[in-house]
Amino acid sequence: MAEPTYPGADAGVAALVDVLRRIDTGRPSRAVMGSGHYANVLRLDERRGLALSTDGVGTKLVVAEQLGRFDTVGIDCVAMNVNDVVCVGAEPIALLDYIAVEEADPGVLGAVAEGLRRGAEEAGVEIPGGELAVVPELVNGLDLVGACIGTVELSEIVTGSAIQPGDALIGLPASGVHSNGLTLARRALPDLSERPPELGGASVGETLLEPTVIYVRAVMALLRSGVEVRGLAHITGDGLLNLLRLEAEVGYRVSSPLPQPPIFELIASRGSVSKAEMHEVFNLGCGFVCVAAGTQASDAVDVLADLHPGAAVIGEATDRAGVVEAGSLTGRRGEGFTSA
């Protein structure tokens, strides 16, 4: 279940999970993990597991609608799902899409499908089915959601529980805001046609629509490389606080953050957004973090940089359990970031 990003959403998710965990099927649960990770794994037999996750594109679709451009949001839909499934060490194999529309416009749907196709090919997954719902009473425009499945050997699930203080955090570059924080970004930069010099000739809208990076091939290469991968984190809403979703009694210190794309400084300055809030909402240039044994950090970077140039060690795990240190800021789940 996706992490909440609005006031009151924590309590809402807790209410949902509290009821759903009491489902009685009349047999022992197949779930291998608890709620709160990026994906869960269902035990198929004594050896194999099926990883499951679901997510949507969010208000990035508002930007797509305002620009009349729908050919990239399908990539975002795939990315938001496959990047979560791979966080448990599973190989994504298929995605189902759910598209809710006010009216079934073949041009729009064809463009959405083009993005889904490109994203699926990049992630190496199939899209064997889905659902189109024409619901003008419910939707003003379009909504796009996916559900991804993957496979994993039960002995090879990555939960984060093996992380130890001193382990290395390797960050993978983001392409921009990805698919989180678009509401705040649009408030700070309401003119999507504006071409600020900071964006190098691109418009605000074009920059915000830059698709979410798909990290699956690089992460799978790392998992197969012999490097001891102890944790995998998709950096979405809540920023680096997503590291605390890993099952580890550790904290994290980010001492050498990746470079931030110019869009983030523009959002901060135009919207008068504090440093703490920027860290709580955006990926700030780091879209994924792999946690590896400290002695294998350089090997991990070499593998990841083949597909994502700019991958680098950004920090380490610490003994301050439940705390993320990012420069002058200290963050805790449910509390956000404050000045250290």
Give a verbal description of the structure.
- With 340 residues, the protein is of the alpha+beta class.
- It folds into 2 domains: 9-156, 60s Ribosomal Protein L30, Chain: A, CATH 3.30.1330; 168-339, PurM-like C-terminal domain (Phosphoribosyl-aminoimidazole Synthetase, Chain A, domain 2, Alpha-Beta Complex).
- It has 10 helices and 13 strands.
- Helix 7 runs antiparallel to helix 10.
- The two termini are 31 Å apart.
- 45% of the residues are buried.
- The mean pLDDT is 95.
* Overall geometric form: globular
The CATH topology of the largest domain, please? Phosphoribosyl-aminoimidazole Synthetase, Chain A, domain 2
Give the topology string: H per helix, E per strand: HEEHHEHEEEHHHEEHHEHEEEE
> What's the CATH first level of the largest domain?
Alpha Beta
**Which homologous superfamily in CATH is the superfamily of the largest domain?**
PurM-like C-terminal domain
Count of folded domains: 2
Distance between the termini: 31 Å
What is the level-2 CATH architecture name of the largest domain? Alpha-Beta Complex
> Helix proportion of residues, in percent?
25-40%
Strand content: 25-35%
Strand order of the largest sheet: 7-9-6-10-8-11-12-13
Radius of gyration: 19 Å
SS field, number of helical segments: 10
User: Total strand count, please?
Assistant: 13
Uncertain regions spanning at least 5 consecutive residues: none
Structural class: alpha+beta
Biggest sheet overview: 8 strands, mixed
Please tell me the overall pLDDT: 95
